[in-house]
Amino acid sequence: MKRENIFFDLDGTLTDSMPGITRAVQYALKHYGIEVENLNVLKPFVGPPLPESFREYYHFSEQDSIDAVSVFREYYNVTGWLQNEPYPGVKAMLETLKAAGKTLYVATSKPEWMAKQVLEHFGLAGYFVMIGGGDDASGRYDKADVICYVMEQNGLTDGNSVVMVGDRRHDIAGAHKTGIPAVGVLFGYGSREELEEAGADWITESVQSLTELLINL
Questions:
Q1: 185 bridge partner residues
Q2: What is the C-alpha separation between 49 and 44, in angstroms, rounded?
Q3: Alpha-carbon span 135 to 170, nearest angstrom
């Protein structure tokens, strides 16, 4: 069966969001008395659910990790989201995939309203049947939960028709947890080692090679 339904992660897969995210994390950490001058140290925050990253990398408590996200958004929601741009070739990739008969979706842990705002700002929102994301009210942040949510909202009951594309281990693990395969991309923020250890079904190095792979799946 052809995998005509393609789910894309956002940060590190469609857009290079590192500058805005790391500056917002820097801002949040400073609120807690933690000074980080080198933004490259904060790259691991790009992609995974933020509460998880605050716990993993700075040993925040459950409550502090949730509160830190609110502080993060004080910066990100005003300034950080604009410090972001699509990877070169992404728009052409989306056009090519649609012309080839693929149906495109976004499945991101980023809050859904923010993901829509980012993609609308860059003129990419119209390529997707649905932009699905995280949700504060329901606590939907885990990638598997977001993937299930997008599938349910679109009546996709056959995982054999779906493939997930992302740059971090969370994308691969979330896809496998829901029974679908995943493509790992190396132009984002995950290393080849990270993607291989997560069990990525395919790994590709460029937007061009990703386009060719997805057309033929």
A1: 204
A2: 11
A3: 17
pLDDT (tens digit, 9 = 90+) per residue, 87-140?
A: 999 999 999 999 999 999 999 999 999 999 999 999 999 999 999 999 988 888
3-state helix, strand, coil in the chain (%, to 5): 50, 15, 30
Residue appearing with tokens 């925050």:
45
Q: What is the pTM of this model?
A: 0.90
Residue with tokens 């028709």: 161
Q: What angle do CA 46, 129, 162 make, to 5 degrees?
A: 75
Catalytic site includes residue 9? yes
The answer to whether the beta carbons of residues 189 and 167 sit under 8 Å apart is yes
The residue among 39, 28, 77, 24 whose CA lies nearest residue 189 is: 39
Alpha-helical runs (H) found in the chain: 18-31, 50-58, 62-76, 90-99, 112-121, 143-153, 169-177, 192-198, 207-216
Question: Half-sphere exposure (CA, 13 Å, Cβ side) for 116?
Answer: 10
Question: Which one, of 209, 146, 142, 114, lies nearest residue 8 by Cα?
Answer: 146
